[in-house]
Amino acid sequence: MKKWTSCTLSSILAFSLFIPFTSYAQANPNKETAVSKEAGNSFPVLTKARKPEDAGFSSEKLEKVDRLIEMEVASGFPGAALIVIKDGKIVKNDSYGYKRKFNEHTPLKRFQKMKDDTMFDLASNTKMYATNFALQKLVSEGKLDIQAKVQQYIPEFKDAEGDVIKGKDTLRIIDVLHHTAGFKPDPQYHNPTVSKELHSQERDKTISFLSKTPLTYVPGTQNVYSDVDYMLLGAIIEKITGQPLDTYVENEVYKPLNLKHTKFNPLQKGFKPKDFAATELLGNTRD
């Protein structure tokens, strides 16, 4: 079986966030994590370091990290969960503060403590832990060529007659990955004041608008972090696989790794608001 690129997180500091794509870093105190029982020999197994020094870390310096986070919590920062992993060894796994202090605008009588299994919003890290993982898998299987033009996968991706800046026919997958494709940072399709004729709150309609979104600078001349880029990459993944992006990564990436708490739209899949760390109101699907 051909293996595709795997990624181990050297360290994760997850703050109090929550959107449709969520996850938590699971690390139980046993020698082997729960995933090891089902993963067999196909994937590296995490084990717990006896002490930080065994993995090249300093206990004293990690205690300073504890104090730093605890100082922030004492100053009003809600809470955090921290896991440090190096070379397959869990060096540190701790939680701090609270995952929920308010019910909307009303303070809770008893704050809910942060736990190791609290689920967090990954926000734009979704680009890495969903879209990029899917792209890596498709490349390793020979189903995607990142040097190919976007039009090879989405034929309707073309310049419009009235577009001031043209060049969509030259764009390759790798240009989109590098954020040099020419798109603005935040299209806000959901916001009619910003998106105007490209306003949409419907999934299929929004995907169709990706091809109609005009370039704002000549491709390759700037590096501008853009949500359009990764929405476009998600659409390409769906074209190749014939599946919604969330379905594909959950079935092809997360389930084989036994990642039961890493998923899109968890409230639609049996999880409750109490399972998550709170976040800010944005007035869109992340609320």
Shape: globular
With helices defined by DSSP (H or I, 4 residues minimum), what is the helix count?
9
What order do the SSEs take from the amino end to the carboxyl end, as H and E? EEHEHEEEEHHHHHHHE
Task: Compute the number of strand runs.
Answer: 8
User: What's the CATH class label of the largest domain?
Assistant: Alpha Beta
Give the class from helix and strand content and strand pairing: alpha+beta
| CATH architectural category of the largest domain | 3-Layer(aba) Sandwich
Largest sheet: 5 strands, mixed
Average residue-wise pLDDT? 83
Question: What is the CATH topology assignment of the largest domain?
Answer: Beta-lactamase
Instruction: Give the strand content.
Output: 15-25%
Write the layout of secondary structure elements.
Elements: E1 11-15, E2 21-23, H1 36-39, E3 47-48, H2 59-74, E4 79-86, E5 89-103, E6 106-113, E7 120-121, H3 126-140, H4 150-153, H5 173-177, H6 192-195, H7 203-210, H8 227-241, H9 245-254, E8 263-264
Parallel strand pairs: 3-5
Antiparallel strand pairs: 1-4, 2-7, 2-8, 4-5, 5-6
Helix pairs in contact: 3-8, 3-9
